[in-house]
Design brief:
Elements (H helix, E strand, L loop, with lengths): L20 E3 L4 H10 L3 E3 L15 E3 L8 E4 L4 E5 L4 H10 L2 E2 L11 H6 L16 E7 L5 E5 L5 H4 L8 E8 L1 E2 L2 E11 H6 L1 H6 L3 E6 L5 E10 L14 E2 L23 E2 L19 E8 L3 H9 L2 H4 L3 E9 L14 E8 L3 H15 L5 E2 L9 H5 L5 H11 L16
Parallel strand pairs: 1-3, 2-3
Antiparallel strand pairs: 4-5, 5-9, 6-10, 7-8, 7-9, 11-13, 11-14, 11-15, 12-13, 12-17, 16-18, 16-19, 17-18
GO molecular function, one term: D-arabinono-1,4-lactone oxidase activity
Protein name: Putative xylitol oxidase
Keywords: Oxidoreductase
Length: about 425
Amino acid sequence: MTAASTAGRNWAGNITFRAARRHRPSTIDELRRIVADSERIRAVGTAHSFNRIADSTGDLVSVADLPPTVEIDEAARTVTVSAAMRYGDLARRLQAAGYALHNLGSLPHISVAGAVATGTHGSGDRNGNLATAVRALRMVTAEGDLVTLRQGDDGFEGAVVALGLLGVVVDVTLAIEPAYEVRQFVFERLPWSRLVESFEEIFSDAYSTSLFTEWTGPVVDQVWRKKRTDEADPPTGEWFGAVPATRALHPIRSMPADNCTAQLGEPGPWHERLPHFRLEFTPSAGDELQTEFLVPREHAVDALTAVDGIRDLVAPQLQISEIRSIAADELWLSPSYRRETIGIHFTWVPDTAAVLPVVEEVQRVLAPFAPRPHWGKIFTTGLDDVAARYERWDDFERLAAGYDPAGKLRSQYDAWQSG
């Protein structure tokens, strides 16, 4: 058995992995031996995490070299896909077969298993995060056993968003639906006062809505509204005081719009409109750090007002901030577990020393609203405090102990927050 090199750093470059050994098995049997023989091990996907959630001081394993799988079950309306496959690659295969997923994240470059394990999400009042599409998963547990969990099995709701703590996932089965088309409209300069007055109407008026702000003034810089073509037509003129963009835009004004999915109402396949960024281009700014806090929807306006109150601190370290909605779900460690949610996302400049004090201040002003941090992004809240915001945390701990009694998958469990 030979350890092959995986990437030595994460996607953003702010984390250098500390693993003593790195593995890229080409078969499930080889993966099982690696996991069984290891004392400490973590799985790494596309490394689109900004903290040490995917790091290990022992072994680091990538499943990217396992045979790629896309198996559509038309009767069950599901697709089984290899864990390392990127959403963008899966989406193209589904579209060619006439199928779609219910939603996609901002960028299609992330792996299916990594996004699911961390509760990563897209946007939309009626759209659960990406993990809510999971109907089964197959993983190699700490002792090297190959285990399948299906929806309805005991512990399934705890095993989907599991942070890599139950085993190394090898494939995931997702719900699919008939392919559909989407039109994307961008509006500029939404008055902050109108957002506060009409928050519910603004977010409920499209299949997916994202607000982008630099936290520099009394307006939201851009609103990206994605409408399915089988929904009512969107407005063509002024909308809640915002004006339609007359050219394609990038959320970060210094970046080229060519990197982004088609706008100006041009209809197109779901997978070419729901993400903000195109698969063949570098997403977002590329050179960046990220933080996200997810708050209960009923506290959204107060939470946003609290962040606006420290805009002079936030703006100098910020590239862009995105605000979007996510539907409630039943997955134990999902940031949207049993609460309708608003995500407040920050794309920071790539300067950890300058960004961390600002993150701490954002956490302070959001603390009254029980924020749950995105598991794969930068936060400094202690794990005990985060755990207290999840009603099923103790149940998850028991579930994890059952699959990994020696804790070999928990090697960085208490050191993720700031990276």
